[in-house]
Amino acid sequence: MAAVRDLKSREMAGLGGDDAVELAKRHLIQPWPYAGSVGSEARALIGEGDGIYITDSTGKRLIDGPAGMWCVNVGHRREELARVMYDQAMALSYNTPWYTMNAPSAELAKRIAGHAPGDLSHVFYTTGGSSAVETALRFMQFYNNVRGRPEKKLILSRGGAYHGSTYLSASLNGRPRDRDWMDGADELVVKLASPDPFRRPKGMSIAAFTDFLVDQFRATVARVGADRIGAFVGEPIQASGGVIIPPDGYLRRIREICRDKDILYISDEVVTGFGRLGHVFASGDVFGIGSDMITFAKGVTSGYFPLGGVIISERLLEELRRSNHPDAMFGHGLTYTSHPVGCAVALKNLDLLEESVLAHTLEVAPYFQAQLKTLEELPLVGEVRGVGLMGCVECVADRESKDPLQLDKDVGKRIDAHCHELGLLVRPLINMCVMSPPLVITREQIDDMVGILREGISRTMEDLRKEGVWQG
User: What strand order describes the sheet that includes 424-425?
Assistant: First the structure.
């Protein structure tokens, strides 16, 4: 049986017929390509997954360090999810959301609302994280138009943020290089400093840094005008920005300012939602904040089917229902809104999370963080940070200056290459290695993962010394 499965996976990887690598170079445009290689690039070919592991086209078994893209939370090859997908497709594969509905979407909305903090009670489904953030922002615009405040549309975002790839959501992004060659709705976005304690001004305490961030937020609102600001959008943890964990109390203080100034607080939980921190949502359970909207995607189906959404406060909906414009239409929707297969998979995925995966995550997370922290012993490592089952190893030329290896900004890719050879897939981000394994990972597997990462960093240090890039 295993041999048959192996043959099948090799065929799916393109190894039994057409060469998938050559086909990709001729016909496939990869995401985030460079102009010099766009449309002619092939990336690591993956044939199959099982638990926390994936297998590449050479047959090498790798720990899936990023869990796909922060999303394969319950692990690969869960037959329960595959069976639900099949059964729902055989019962109802699709229905138009414009004038019909399906039962899985309604049941899932009820269960999601049951986990959401405060009065977040209604769900609008999308196809992923970018469209979820886009939907939340368009809802903010609609909400203020209906309430007679058409000028209240500006959006506050932060350095280091990542909120998506659609036009409006991408306009919020604050990571290096994201917007170098891309246009955006810059007239609608006001940027704030990144809440990154590691990069705070030299000599400034964490408490003083927190005050600085809050004072900057308050001053920005005063300068721009609360009557012109529609929303603040923030990840509880800036995931793709390098697992930036804000100082204690920062988010609660920002939330209070937003509430006081009638600015909608949108918590982007595309990464942190559905178990990454041991809870379905981190906003309330981990950070103690009640949002006006929460966006989600990724872990809601553990990556088995594209699905995302926005949870919206009952207060906002009630204000719309009481408005003087009952005929105003929220002219927004997607062909695959409330997709029955996606919602059915999400329901079963939520069952798995509630039955054991959330508890397991809370149990192994402290061990995961402690083992990752040992990598700070390595001279190339400036900081290891994380919470739950997400972490980042940030490499710097020297810890005193916190210089992110200006002579070699691809250090993350170097580490990833060594780790791939050793049996681990890493998410490289310039000079950082981000880890967010499937939530079902065991302590023994954590030991394997950290051991490989340690060796990958050590080999990279030796490479850099030989090339004269770094002498550490």
Answer: 46-50, 53-56, 61-64, 424-425
Tokens of 460: 């990279």
Q: What is the pLDDT of residue 1?
A: 44
Whether 45 contacts 68, CB under 8 Å:
no
Q: How far apart are CA 32 and CA 218, in angstroms?
A: 35
Q: Which two tokens stand for residue 81?
A: 């999810």
**Contact status, residue 397 vs residue 379, Cβ threshold 8 Å:** no
Q: What is the pLDDT of residue 14?
A: 45
- The yes-or-no verdict on residue 4 having pLDDT over 70 is no
Q: How far apart (Å, rounded) are the C-alpha atoms in residues 447 and 250? A: 33
Per the CB < 8 A criterion, the answer to whether 203 and 194 are in contact is no
**Helices of type H across 28-78:** 67-70
Q: How far apart are the first and last CA of the chain?
A: 51
pLDDT per residue as tens digits for the range 147-162? 999 999 999 999 999 9
Q: Which residue's structure tokens are 């000599």?
A: 203
Q: Which residues of 447-460 are buried (b: 16+ CB within 10 A; e: fewer)?
A: ebbbebbbbbbbbb
Residues 278 and 388 sit within 8 Å (Cβ to Cβ): yes
Contact 218, 238 (CB under 8 A): no
Q: In which element (H, E) is residue 370 found? A: helix 358-373
* Alpha carbon distance 213, 165 (integer Å): 26
Nearest partner of 277 among 369, 143, 378, 170, judged by Cα: 369
Q: pTM of the full predicted structure?
A: 0.94
* Three-state SS at 383: strand
- Give 65: exposed, middle or buried? Use CB within 10 Å, 0-12, 13-18, 19+: buried
Q: What is the pLDDT of residues 430-472, one digit of tens each?
A: 899 999 999 999 999 999 999 999 999 999 999 999 988 888 7
Distance between CA 134 and CA 112 in Å, rounded? 20
Q: What is the structure's pLDDT at 3?
A: 47
